[in-house]
Q: What sequence folds into this?
């Protein structure tokens, strides 16, 4: 064959593959794993605590070939192997190590996890090893072979491992490291405990070789009758059929795969998802070799001046902020029951909206909240002063954003993606965050983009919102602690606000601390009376903010933070919860509840 011809063919193929790649803006995370056939790898895992990363580096700090990931066993009595998972400690997955072992309470560093499991292959099957979350850095090995890494503690990742599995006994080893580093996201200081470990579930997911990998199904921007979407088919070929059906709406459409993707649109009149009626529809996607069903709600969200419109109607977001701290047992939330306890408390508070702070919470939390009718603010941990001029830090933040949106893009309850919390003004920061907001819009142009700011200045008319980041976002979140970090509580009622932007403002954080059961006058810090006064006067302040379209006071429940060492009061807990970590409601809980139930219903 003439060299020029082969070159042309080569060029064509490469453009095809890059096109293919370009076509997949999202990471290839399997969508809706709940609906997939899977084997859980949850339960007891063997662990080795390795502060010096002795199982990874040799004494010359060079990565070793025969590290702990080999799970080596003595073959003869003279063998020298200075670790043994089978005789080591065990820990429960999912979960953090800090609250499971007293000796690991403050531990930050490497812990090696090992799990044995049995596997028998099926024909025409692909197998994915799927982690819902590992904090912070994970290096994953299967049967002693490195299969991949992941950075970021709050989003899922997967590896296709079909060819690496053995018939019968297999073992997976994960090197988990939650060491804080300046270039990380979040960086070295955060006001929540740096819980380390395999904090969410681990699955072996089985799919047909050719399977539905990812899909997006929702109303087109600004339309309540045009459902649009796409489906990507792994190992699919052009011309393959894809069928999308919504039985309850008597809708069934067919589409054709082109470049690995099938686009479609459906004219329909769905009952729109809203807090009072969180309507979800069963949607089934079928191909010749695969089928998957999801429950999806349809709604539109937009802004009009300083108003937030849900399904074209103005809505006020009566919210509360929530950390992924487990009620009663504390540590990372690990079960649906714990999610429901937190959400039930938010329901009792009269909320129709929750801010999941400061990182993506579990898919279970998002789906349970959606079923209960909560509108959601979902966030990536671009928190305080990260390295805005560091390109790896940006790539990391962008990756966490992409994984967050990829996992939850079909959740109607999520109205806003937040790209940052309390970041200091500056050029590098503005570029960094403006780029992130643009990235978010590219990935999903149907939701609102926001950020929580604390850059309000003292102006003539009171507090002035003029942070240049206000230009890039659709909704401006403001964190302001009147009566706690600034001013006495009594001063707050008369505080006025002004904004340089004709955009909705959400008071994304407001509040103060109290130790449950500590009583005294309303001027005595840490008493329930003081916290209640802070809420009373801040609610008065917020009543006077015309462009306020919602709030998410800080915070539903006390949560652990290594910034809170005050003995007999904080005991390593941030005490700004309206409920203690042991479920005891403080006076301020009822102040906010009355405001939500009596005023804004
Ligand atoms: C900040 C921050 C929170 C923190 C809170 C507090 O605004 O966003 O993460 O916990 O203030 O100081 O309690």
A:
């Amino acid at each position: 064959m003439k060299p020029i011809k082969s070159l042309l063919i080569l060029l064509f193929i490469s453009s095809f593959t890059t096109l293919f790649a370009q076509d997949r803006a999202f990471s290839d995370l399997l969508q809706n794993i709940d609906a997939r056939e899977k084997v859980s790898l949850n339960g007891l895992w063997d662990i080795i605590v390795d502060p010096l990363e002795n199982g990874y580096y040799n004494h010359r700090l060079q990565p070793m070939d025969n590290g702990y990931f080999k799970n080596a066993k003595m073959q003869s009595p003279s063998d020298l192997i200075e670790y043994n998972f089978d005789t080591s400690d065990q820990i429960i997955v999912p979960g953090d190590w800090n609250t499971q072992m007293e000796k690991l309470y403050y531990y930050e560093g490497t812990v090696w996890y090992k799990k044995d499991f049995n596997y028998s292959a099926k024909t025409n099957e692909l197998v994915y090893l799927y982690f819902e979350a590992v904090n912070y850095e994970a290096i994953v090995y299967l049967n002693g072979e490195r299969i991949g890494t992941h950075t970021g503690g709050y989003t899922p990742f997967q590896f296709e491992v079909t060819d690496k599995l053995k018939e019968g006994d297999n073992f997976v080893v994960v090197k988990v490291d939650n060491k804080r580093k300046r270039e990380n996201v979040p960086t070295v200081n955060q006001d929540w405990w740096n819980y380390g470990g395999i904090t969410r579930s681990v699955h072996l997911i089985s799919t047909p070789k050719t399977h539905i990998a990812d899909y997006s199904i929702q109303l087109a921007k600004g339309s309540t009758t045009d459902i649009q979407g796409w489906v990507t088919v792994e190992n699919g070929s052009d011309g393959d059929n894809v069928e999308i059906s919504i039985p309850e709406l008597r809708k069934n459409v067919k589409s054709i795969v082109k470049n690995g993707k099938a686009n479609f649109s459906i004219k329909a009149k769905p009952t729109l998802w809203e807090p009072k009626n969180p309507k979800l529809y069963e949607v089934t996607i079928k191909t010749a070799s695969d089928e998957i069903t999801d429950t999806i709600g349809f709604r539109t969200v937009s802004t009009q001046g300083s108003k937030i419109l849900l399904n074209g109607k103005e809505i006020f977001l009566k919210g509360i902020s929530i950390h992924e701290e487990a009620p009663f047992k504390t540590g990372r939330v690990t079960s649906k029951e714990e999610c429901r306890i937190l959400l039930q408390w938010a329901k009792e508070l009269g909320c129709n909206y929750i801010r999941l702070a400061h990182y993506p919470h579990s898919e279970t939390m998002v789906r349970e909240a959606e079923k209960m009718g909560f509108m959601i603010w979902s966030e990536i941990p671009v928190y305080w002063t990260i390295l805005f001029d560091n390109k790896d830090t940006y790539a990391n933040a962008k990756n966490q954003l992409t994984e967050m949106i990829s996992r939850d893009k079909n959740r109607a309850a999520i109205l806003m993606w937040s790209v940052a919390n309390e970041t200091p003004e500056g050029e590098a920061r503005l570029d960094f965050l403006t780029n992130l907001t643009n990235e978010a819009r590219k990935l999903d142009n149907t939701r609102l983009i926001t950020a929580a700011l604390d850059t309000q200045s003292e102006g003539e008319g009171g507090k002035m919102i003029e942070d240049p980041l206000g230009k890039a976002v659709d909704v401006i979140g403001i964190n302001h602690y009147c009566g706690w970090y600034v001013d006495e509580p009594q001063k707050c009622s008369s505080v006025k606000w002004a904004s340089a932007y004709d955009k909705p403002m959400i008071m994304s954080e407001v509040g103060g601390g109290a130790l449950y059961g500590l009583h005294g006058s309303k001027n005595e810090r840490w008493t329930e009376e003081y916290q209640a006064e802070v809420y009373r006067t801040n609610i008065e302040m917020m009543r006077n903010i015309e462009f306020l379209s919602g709030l998410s006071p800080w915070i539903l429940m006390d949560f652990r933070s290594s910034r809170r060492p005050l003995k007999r009061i904080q005991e390593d807990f941030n005490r700004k919860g309206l409920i203690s970590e042991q479920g005891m409601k403080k006076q301020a809980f009822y102040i906010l509840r009355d405001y939500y139930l009596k005023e804004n219903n």
Summary: The two ends are 75 Å apart (CA to CA). The first helix runs from residue 3 to 23. The mean pLDDT is 95. The pocket of alpha-D-glucopyranuronic acid is lined by residues 191, 358, 421-422, 479, 509, 554, 574, 576 (CB under 6 Å).
